[in-house]
């Protein structure tokens, strides 16, 4: 018999029908001549209650052998449950044990563990309620992201993981080399990259944007969704060295269109998660962060605030709060500023537009208008309560001459960007896009405090277990 998923049995399993289920035992309770197990197969927060009657074959041995963490297969009949909070339970007719879990050493015994402790056992934490919920919501978000873009006719494009261009110009790249750097160092000579695998320095991608622009200037609307790497100080609660990024890119689109899409996008993902993972969301609200439902409701129902960077600076300058980092026109907003704007001042997501040219990447379109307008670029960041910046986007510079001089001004060599400039040389169009950190999104939705707890295998300085 094919095994049934527990989530399906709980929702729509037929009372009096026979089923087979497989999973891991969460808890065991023994009564007089009867035992109860809670079985979980990862398909839902709630497990299935299994009742072992005393006349079950091998009852004594099974009750002894089965402890928290044991993997089993149960054949049984679904019956109405007398217990609270569950519609059905299973009366076992046969149980087979796959693997036991020694209660002396298995860490996930029935008590609450701290998140910090669970982080040290990332190979076992997916078996807990909290991480089960996180990874199911993560999955739902990923599915909804594809659905959102596919429904709108965007093409999913695959940009390279190994790249030769530092898109953000922030010098946060991991090098990729097959050279034996110890040997090179011993010679005392500089590294000769012509001898390297690619014949020149190569890096793990920090963003697929430039390549996405290539695809957008052929397919109009495209998006990427893949891993991204930044060798930055990720000892914060919102930075990882390896994270996933979603980057849509739209030809014939300006910054306002870009912001509209980003807002629709976030509303869509939240709606999807609320509709498909209600129990997991309730869990986050009750056990992780009591702002989860308020945040979700605001995202779905309210229009996001839109302000300029200059207005943001004025708000920060005139508020009564004291910040650790300076607030000054021309400096980038720090996380404390971003969170103040979204959490305290507006109490909802805020789209900040038109940042100073000096703090943004070379590819962003320079504003036209007055002399001070021309000091700003068509950039937007979306700031969310709890996490700060969640999306960074911009309208791209589509004018060949302006782009060329911008590249020069930031100290890059236009020759290295010949292919990027070709996109402006031949059939250039206004275009725009944004980058959304997938883990920031999951962090925002679940209310989890640390980004390391929303990715199965977090990568940060001094940590690359598995
Ligand atoms: P921050 O200001 O938070 O460091 P950023 O401005 O450097 O972010 P962008 O280059 O704009 O980031 O990248 C786009 C998005 O990718 C960000 O809005 C954020 O959601 C996400 N992101 C950036 N860096 C990281 C990281 N190290 N770990 C996880 N997500 C990240
Ligand atoms: Mg950064
Ligand atoms: Mg930023
Ligand atoms: Mg940014």
From TrEMBL:
Major localization listed first in the record, in broad terms: cytoplasm
Subcellular location: Cytoplasm
GO MF term (any one): nucleic acid binding
Domain Aminoacyl-transfer RNA synthetases class-II family profile: 144-456
UniProt cross-references to Pfam families, sorted A to Z: tRNA-synt_2 (PF00152), tRNA_anti-codon (PF01336)
SUBUNIT field: Homodimer.
Official protein name in the record: Asparagine--tRNA ligase
Upper classification of the organism: Bacteria, Bacillati, Cyanobacteriota, Cyanophyceae, Pseudanabaenales
């Amino acid at each position: 018999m094919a095994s049934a998923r527990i989530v399906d049995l709980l929702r729509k399993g037929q009372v009096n029908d026979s089923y087979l289920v497989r999973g891991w035992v969460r808890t065991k309770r023994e009564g007089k001549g009867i035992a109860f197990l809670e079985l979980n197969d990862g398909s839902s927060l709630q497990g299935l209650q299994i009742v072992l009657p005393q006349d079950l074959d091998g009852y004594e041995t099974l009750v002894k052998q089965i402890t928290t963490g044991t993997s089993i297969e149960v054949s049984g009949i679904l019956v109405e449950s007398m217990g609270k909070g569950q519609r059905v339970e299973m009366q076992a007719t046969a149980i087979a044990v796959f693997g036991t879990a020694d209660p002396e050493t298995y860490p996930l015994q029935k008590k609450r563990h701290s998140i910090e402790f669970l982080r040290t056992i990332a190979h076992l934490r997916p078996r807990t309620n909290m991480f089960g919920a996180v990874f199911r919501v993560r999955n739902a978000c990923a599915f909804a992201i594809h659905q959102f873009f596919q429904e709108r006719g965007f093409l999913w494009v695959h940009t390279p993981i190994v790249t030769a261009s530092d898109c953000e110009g922030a010098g946060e790249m991991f090098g990729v080399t097959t050279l034996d750097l110890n040997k090179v160092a011993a010679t005392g000579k500089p590294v000769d990259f012509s001898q390297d695998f690619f014949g020149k320095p190569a890096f793990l991608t920090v963003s697929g944007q430039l390549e996405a622009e290539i695809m957008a200037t052929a397919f109009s609307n495209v998006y990427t969704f893949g891993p991204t790497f930044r060798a930055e100080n990720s000892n914060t609660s919102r930075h990882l060295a390896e994270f996933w990024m979603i980057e849509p890119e739209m030809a014939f689109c300006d910054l306002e269109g870009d912001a509209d899409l980003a807002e629709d996008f976030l509303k869509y993902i939240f709606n999807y998660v609320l509709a498909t993972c209600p129990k997991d969301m309730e869990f986050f609200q009750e056990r992780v962060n009591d702002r989860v439902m308020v945040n979700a409701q605001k995202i779905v129902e309210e229009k996001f605030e839109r302000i300029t960077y200059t207005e943001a600076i004025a708000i920060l300058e005139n508020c009564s709060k004291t910040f650790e980092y300076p607030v000054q026109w021309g400096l980038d907003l720090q996380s404390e500023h971003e969170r103040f704007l979204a959490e305290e001042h507006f109490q909802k997501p805020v789209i900040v537009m038109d940042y100073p040219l000096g703090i943004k990447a070379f590819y962003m379109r320079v504003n036209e208008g007055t002399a001070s307008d021309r000091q700003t670029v068509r950039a937007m960041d979306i700031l969310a309560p709890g996490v700060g910046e969640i999306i960074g986007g911009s309208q791209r510079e589509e004018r060949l001459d302006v782009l060329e001089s911008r590249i020069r001004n930031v100290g890059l060599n236009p020759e290295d960007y010949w292919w990027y400039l070709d996109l402006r040389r031949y059939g250039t169009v206004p275009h725009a896009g944004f980058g959304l950190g997938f883990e920031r999104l999951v962090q925002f939705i679940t209310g989890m405090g640390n980004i390391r707890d929303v990715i199965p295998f977090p990568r940060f300085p001094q940590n690359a277990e598995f």
